[in-house]
Amino acid sequence: MSAPGENLKINGARLWDSLMEMAKIGPGVAGGNNRQTLTDDDAKGRALFQTWCEEAGCSMGLDTMGNMFAYREGTDPDALPVYMGSHIDTQPTGGKYDGVLGVLGGLEAFRTMNDLGIKTKHPIVLVNWTNEEGTRFAPAMLASGVFAGKHTQDWAYDRVDAEGKRFGDELERIGWKGAETVGDRKMHAMFELHIEQGPILEAEKKDIGVVTHGQGLRWIECTITGKESHTGSTPMAMRKNAGRGLALVTELVHEIAMKNQPNAVGAIGHIDVYPNSRNIIPGKVVCTVDMRTHLLDKLNGMVDELMERAPKLCEEIGVEFSCEIVGQFDPPAFDDGCVAAVRDAAERLGYSHMDIVSGAGHDACWINDVAPTAMIMCPCVDGLSHNEAEEISPAWAEAGANVLFHAVVETAEIVE
Fold it and tell me: What does the DSSP 8-state code read for residue 110?
């Protein structure tokens, strides 16, 4: 297949303008975005994205999970499409680039193909996956998970937010439930551009991360049960303090992650303490442990150690421990051919690059199970993400989009 010449590049200023225009929809309180999935602002962002895609000559498909597919024709109607994309939904206190860069970087690739008169054998499709963040409706990567057969659609429709609103009802309410059967599409390949959401690329002074693996994930919901009693009148030796159990488990999670370095992480991110009163010793704590690494055996070993040691630690202080896995996916190894296309594009364009493991979950991790897939990462300042202060430079955005453009066009095969 022929590769695009190194002089073929996207319009970085136009990409940046699009990022800033999308950021006006669902502004946060501190300079970022609050454009949570299936909200009115999500609907407005989708409408703007569709308008831009149609202006670029694409037709728009929409499936029953609300996934949006902008289609650019290829010269061979029988060739499977090459996909690219990410998501435009955000965290409640999200940044302007997480997910959005991958979608609008793909849009800029379309615009550049039009500017340069590039035709490809394979059609190219740009996708906006619904509810990647999972902050309003758990779990994360919900719609791509249904697309890849990881969840049933009925189960996904029944997910509820903190106010008890159903995913399926909210999808209909905002008017973005399509008729196309989710998962029916077949892909030649899929590429996702994303900010790193970690500090490695910036620290190593690299323009591009060539993502070879994603981290596997286990979310373990833990319940520590003690006995509620008065903080002032209960002798220390007679307490059954679930809060103390939480402290022990927190340290255990850290210890397990540290001894499984490198590329292993663990933390407790969500905690509910009952009854959560100033003068009552906690009688129950419910928390969620997040453990991740890119090696399946290591990941399973970390979970096994937590489940073996935590009950014993809690028993020693008179409280009980129980747990269950409430979210999981195994570590994906991305397709060698697609990874090579990303690496070759970075080389051809003269960008510094390094292989990297994705520390976060992404839609590409699910799609990797149904089609050859790879990811491209660009740095973000201080590795900060899921925060309104998330920041990248225009040069980083342009480099990432250029690599996406080259990898996608090469894979879709330029027609001279």
Answer: H
**Residue 139 structure tokens:** 């779990």
User: Please, which residues have CB within 8 angstroms of residue 88's CB and are 6 or more apart in sequence?
Assistant: 22, 35, 42, 45, 46, 49, 99, 100, 103, 128
- Rounded to an integer, the average pLDDT of 251-273 is 96
Beta strands 264-274; 284-293: pairing state: antiparallel
> Tell me, what DSSP letter sits at residue 148?
T
The span from the CA of 79 to the CA of 81, in Å, is: 6
For range 62-66, the mean pLDDT: 98
The pTM of the full predicted model, rounded to 2 decimals, is: 0.86
Q: 231-235: long-range contacts (C-beta < 8 A, 24 or more apart)?
A: 231/278, 231/279, 231/280, 231/281, 232/279, 234/281
Q: What angle do CA 96, 99, 101 make, to 5 degrees?
A: 70
Which residues, at least 6 apart from 405, have a Cβ–Cβ distance to it below 8 Å? 4, 8, 9, 10, 105, 108, 109, 112, 113
196, 378 in Cβ contact below 8 A?
yes
3-state secondary structure (DSSP) of residue 305 = helix
409, 245 contact by CB (below 8 A): no
Query: Which pLDDT tens digit goes with each residue over 182-231?
Result: 999 999 999 999 999 999 999 999 999 999 999 999 999 999 999 999 99
Q: Give CA–CA dist 374/340, Å, rounded.
A: 9
Q: Are strands 82-86 and 124-128 parallel, antiparallel or unpaired?
A: parallel
The predicted pLDDT at position 98 comes to 98
Task: Tell me the pLDDT tens digit for each residue of 306-346.
Answer: 999 999 999 999 999 999 998 888 899 999 999 999 999 99
DSSP 357-390: EESS--HHHHHTTTS-EEEEEE--GGG--SSTT-
